[in-house]
Every structure is written in structure tokens, then in C-alpha cells.
Write a structure and sequence with these properties.
This protein has helices spanning 4-11, 27-42, 46-55, 97-109, 119-124, 126-138; strands spanning 66-71, 74-80, 85-90, 113-118. β1 and β2 (74-80) form a beta hairpin. The protein is built from 6 helices and 4 strands. The radius of gyration is 18 Å and the shape is globular. 42% of the residues lie in helices and 16% in strands.
Length: 159
């Protein structure tokens, strides 16, 4: 007996992904992207490691981040889900501006904004990076939606 996800992988068809993650791509493609993201979390670059040391554990004014977060067929270096903000750290070999623009447009269509910094910014001016990032976060509207299945009014409240 296969799970719905395993069956979708067997058929190479897009199953119901939940949380809007499907993006119309197959379960196999999503599994591949998640595998790449996992590998990237195990082997971060030095700038990613330094920035994560400042973003992890909600250290930046309580904003929660994920690192190497899979969003559809893309992997974001850092993602603040509540603000819909993606932070990308671009190295000196990074230079495909057209590809980045297409990627950013696709993510923007899905409700995300992308903020880019260079490796040099992170390595030489991390405080400036954090100030700019915090400014963007504080000016972002909250993306928190009400729970789709709220409990009956008053349930679980102390009297």
C-alpha cells in the first residue's frame, strides 16, 4: 500500500502538495529540490554560515527564518515565511542576471519578495546587512492567515 505521495512519485504526477507547494510540478521534482536543499544545509558557504548565526533562533527581533528553504522548484538561501521575504547571498561567480530576474518574478507571483546581498556584504558589513534586512522585515505586511479550521469560540481558554 503506497502513500499518496509515493504513488504520485511512482506515476511522476503532481499530487496535492498542501500549503501551496505544488506549483504544478511532479512529486519527483519536489523531492529532488528538497534533496538539494538538504545537501545545501549540510554544506553552507562561509557567508551563509555567518548570516545564519545571526538569523537562527529568531535572533533578529523575533523574526523566524528557514535556511535553504524549498519553494516550489526554487531554493531560497533564507526565508522569513511570516514576511514573505527571501534573502539571497550571491557569490562572486554568481552572475546570471536574467535567470535571477525570471526566478524573482516567479517567486513574486507566488507572493514572495527577494532581497539580495553579496558575499562581500555579509563578510565585511554584516551589521549593515542586518539593519537593511530588519528594515525590510518591519515594513513588510504580516502574511499570517487565520487558521483554516479554527476551534469553537472560547475552547481552550482559561475561565
Amino acid at each position: 500500500m503506497l502513500t499518496p505521495r509515493d504513488e504520485a512519485q511512482r506515476l511522476n504526477s503532481p499530487p496535492l502538495q498542501g500549503r501551496g507547494r505544488g506549483w504544478g510540478v511532479s512529486a519527483n521534482a519536489i523531492a529532488r529540490v528538497q534533496g538539494f536543499a538538504s545537501e545545501m544545509r549540510r554544506n553552507p558557504t562561509e557567508p551563509e554560515r555567518r548570516l545564519w548565526a545571526r538569523l537562527s533562533r529568531s535572533q533578529l527581533r523575533g523574526f523566524k527564518f528557514r535556511r535553504q528553504a524549498a519553494i516550489g522548484i526554487y531554493i531560497a538561501d533564507f526565508l522569513c515565511p511570516s514576511a514573505g521575504l527571501i534573502v539571497e547571498i550571491d557569490g562572486h561567480t554568481h552572475g546570471n542576471i536574467e535567470k535571477d530576474a525570471r526566478r524573482d518574478a516567479a517567486l513574486q507571483a507566488a507572493g514572495y519578495r527577494t532581497l539580495r546581498f553579496t558575499n562581500t556584504d555579509v563578510m565585511n558589513n554584516i551589521e549593515g546587512v542586518l539593519i537593511r534586512l530588519l528594515s525590510e522585515l518591519q515594513s513588510s505586511p504580516s502574511r499570517r492567515a487565520p487558521h483554516p479550521n479554527p476551534s469553537p469560540e472560547g475552547e481552550g481558554l482559561e475561565r
